[in-house]
Design brief:
With 332 residues, the chain is α/β, with parallel strands linked by helices. It contains 15 helices and 11 strands.
């Protein structure tokens, strides 16, 4: 069963240049210090690649000394980058699109995962069209849950001013609001969704949002253009570690599930179902993670939803050079 997520979590990665060089020989080397701020605390399974890269040593083997710290959301992560407090941010593509459209100096370098979102509602609602005049829960007013919900509504002819979006933070708030009848639908990550379905028999999957918008560009890692030019090796090493970690996850179900239970706080049954769903649909990225067609389509939707006023070109918002170098080095 396809279920999924509310506000996209974001990550900010603060890379603190230590002056250490990444040695290419087998000798001991000093590690580049990096702080990774994770917006979802505890993380959802779509973001487990970052935890796996840390706990299974992929960051260290690529010359990185990583400290993971919590962050409050995608917008906050982007603001941290803009303020110079972090150099990498990962989360919903809405934040980076808005920054690029406003000349913010950011560029996306990779997509860590594909859309795992589904819209859940009480069983009295059997179609998206019945949401007209209803209240829908969302974690923020611009993230992927909101964006995908808006796309689903527009597909059935419902305008955004014909529904109410209630901005609520986290699964407990959304579930509580749904149980109390204050909202009639909300979007959830796959693990959140399976948990809710197991606890509330009056809830069902109304719309698998990833099916409603298959071209949606869900998540991206972004960096300041200036940082990438100054520290290209750090950027490439970070992407190598992430690609290695997420590749490992597909072939190591047991350890991945065990770590996910510990880190997400979900039950073994929910994590196992979620892992099977994410692996079967290849939602953890091990390549570039997005296509120019996805980027163009998503930016057009952002403009239609009022997130951006002008549409950046693909080259303005995405620099493939770092991930292409990482993939080439991994193959070599």
């Amino acid at each position: 069963m396809a279920v999924a997520g509310l506000s996209v979590g974001a990550l900010a990665v603060a890379a603190v240049p230590s002056g250490a060089s990444a040695a290419t020989s087998g000798h001991a080397r000093k590690l580049q210090k990096i702080t990774l701020t994770l917006a979802l605390d505890p993380p959802k399974m779509i973001f487990m690649g970052f935890e796996i890269a840390q706990q299974e040593g992929f960051f260290q083997r690529n010359g990185l000394d990583v400290t993971i710290m919590p962050e409050q959301g995608g917008v906050q992560a982007a603001r941290a980058v803009a303020a110079g407090d972090a150099y990498f941010e990962a989360g919903g593509t809405d934040a980076i699109a808005a920054s690029v459209a406003q000349g913010g100096g950011l560029v996306s370098i990779w997509s860590y995962g594909q859309d795992d979102l589904s819209l859940l509602s009480d069983k009295s609602i059997t179609s998206v069209a019945q949401l007209k005049g209803k209240t829908i829960g969302a974690g923020d007013s611009t993230g992927p849950a909101f964006e995908l919900g808006a796309i689903a509504l527009r597909d059935v002819g419902i305008k955004l001013n014909q529904v109410t979006f209630a901005i609520l933070n986290g699964r407990p708030a959304l579930v509580g609001a749904m149980v109390a009848g204050k909202i009639q639908a909300a979007a959830f990550h796959v693990d959140d969704g399976f948990t809710l379905l197991s606890q509330d028999k009056n809830v069902h999957v109304l719309e698998p949002l990833y099916k409603a918008a298959p071209l949606f560009w869900y998540g991206a890692v972004g960096i300041p253009v200036s940082y990438g030019k100054a520290h290209p090796t750090v950027v490439v090493d970070f992407l190598k570690a992430m690609i290695e970690a997420q590749t490992w996850m597909y072939s190591h179900p047991g350890p991945t599930i065990s770590l996910s239970v510990k880190d997400t706080g979900e039950t073994q049954a929910v994590v196992t179902k979620s892992y099977d769903f994410l692996r079967a649909n290849k939602l953890w990225t091990t390549g570039v993670g997005m296509t120019p067609a996805q980027i163009k389509w998503t930016l057009q939707e952002y403009k239609a939803n009022g997130i951006i006023k002008t549409i950046p070109t693909v080259s303005q918002i995405f620099d493939p050079s770092y991930v292409n170098q990482a993939l080439a080095q991994l193959k070599g």
